[in-house]
Amino acid sequence: MKMTPKFFTLLAGLLPLALPSAGHAEQADRRPNVLFIAVDDLKPMLGCYGDTVIKTPNIDRLASHGTVFLNAHCQQAICGPSRASLLTGLRPDATGIYDLQTKIRALTPDVVTLPQYFKNNGYQSVGLGKIFDPRNVEGYAKDDPQSWSRPYVQVANNKDSVLGFLHPEFVAKVRAACQEQGIAANDWDGMSKAVGGKPVTELTEDVPDNAYQDGALASRAAGLMAKLAQGDTPFFLAVGFQKPHLPFVAPKKYADLYSEKDIRLAEFQKMPEGAPQFHFQPGWELRNTGYAGFVPDNNSTESPIPEDRVEDQKSMVLGYMACVSYIDAQVGLLLDTLESKGIADNTIVVLWGDHGFHLGDHGLWCKHTNYEQATRSPLIIAPKAAGGEGRKSEAPVEFIDIYPTLCQLAGLPIPAELQGLSLVPIMEGTAAKVKDVAVTQYPRGQGAEEMMGYAFRNGRYRYIEWVPKGQPNAEPKATELYDYETDPLEKKNLADDPAQYVILENMRAAARDFHAKNPIRTGS
């Protein structure tokens, strides 16, 4: 072949494409970055979890590069305690966080959180959006300053929105009420009450993604990631999306992805036969957080949206689905940024929802139970955001396992005080499971009648025992047993079925072993 000047000109033009850039080479020589994505109230309504209707191409793309944990469970099905547990690697009984008021560092001032641990080990630890529940942490921005290398990033709502809504009529109504009644712009409860309650959905506005807060958050996160990629140190970037948490607001185009036939209502909307009635929760979040126009703000013990309110149920389900697809698009923006900056092959990505969500099953809405739809949530971990072979695991795993897993993937020592286990053996295919059960807990009752329910989920069964709070070894006040092979909808409590004696005894043994190894925190 004759080497003409034209040939060498062509070769010179191709070299930049064939050789890694200096920045890319530096990325390959250092510890992997971590992109830590939290999604509020996300249940496993995703394509990679087998849902054939939902549109989630970007989360499914991430799943194709990592491990999808099909049987992952939070430690308590409510935002604050779940996040406190995950981010400290400690169970609620060890953190002492069971509610939305107690501060993490008020009880455990020296605890080292997951982002703090990475910061202490040379990472730029940066957070934005909802990572900790702000009600459970201190700091000017309610962000736990010890966890981050730089001030936490707050993303303001669009100036045209009110209470997260953009519909002109509702926005005008709220602003008029505020002016007439002297309500402060940050008094969300006051504004909601002044207009008789806020809507549960807003899917009618034809606006860009960044008109709502999560779209603005994704744009800000993508910009931060691009800057962090140019730095000399690896980054731990935590991005917390708020949807599909109520209210269900998203640009119209995401609702338009679905037709009437795509909206599926819960097949079984009664409490399980033989279940203790106190396990039911009457939609506290809907009743007591400003949706009075949709659900009465009261202490009713009935389902907030009964079966005969078909259209209202459909609007809730559609709103949730639209928000899931909206967040999927924001996840896509982050993944695209990793690829465009040439760091996808040196970035660990973990995506998790802080708990599941009831959409009418058992007559339940929202979370706050020990049932499957509340405790089970997505967990996807990809050692690299590009490349790698996707796999799925049905092993029981817990959110406290995320902390040690990320440590091992990043080559950092695993702190001895963590209560979870690394999932790397499952991800690498060297172990089918690392534990026999995943454990979730949720309280019921008040004062002398307060109980703690502990749910033990293995590959097939869920065993729940309700004991006096603080007395895990006491005789249970009630027990529940569900078989997901024969009864995936939890229609019947099998705890009193003589045919289940051996299974029940095995699950009780697992409970006793768990309590022996995980004592409840005492003192303040």
Overview of this structure, please?
32% of the residues lie in helices and 16% in strands. The protein is α/β, with parallel strands linked by helices. Helix 3 crosses helix 13, helix 8 crosses helix 9 and helix 10 packs parallel to helix 13.
The best one-word shape is globular
Number of strands: 15
User: Average pLDDT across residues?
Assistant: 92
Helix content: 25-40%
Total tally of structural domains: 2
Shape-level CATH architecture of the largest domain? 3-Layer(aba) Sandwich
CA radius of gyration: 24 Å
Kindly provide the name of the CATH class of the largest domain.
Alpha Beta
Condensed summary:
The chain is α/β, with parallel strands linked by helices.
Write the layout of secondary structure elements.
Elements: H1 5-18, H2 22-29, E1 33-39, H3 57-63, E2 67-73, H4 79-88, H5 92-95, H6 104-107, H7 114-120, E3 124-129, H8 168-181, H9 188-194, E4 201-202, H10 213-228, E5 235-241, E6 248-249, H11 252-255, H12 284-288, H13 310-340, E7 347-353, E8 358-359, E9 365-366, H14 372-375, E10 379-382, E11 391-398, H15 402-410, H16 424-428, E12 438-444, E13 451-457, E14 461-468, E15 478-483, H17 501-517
Parallel strand pairs: 1-5, 1-7, 2-11, 3-5, 4-6
Antiparallel strand pairs: 2-10, 7-10, 8-9, 12-13, 13-14, 14-15
Helix pairs in contact: 3-13, 8-9, 10-13
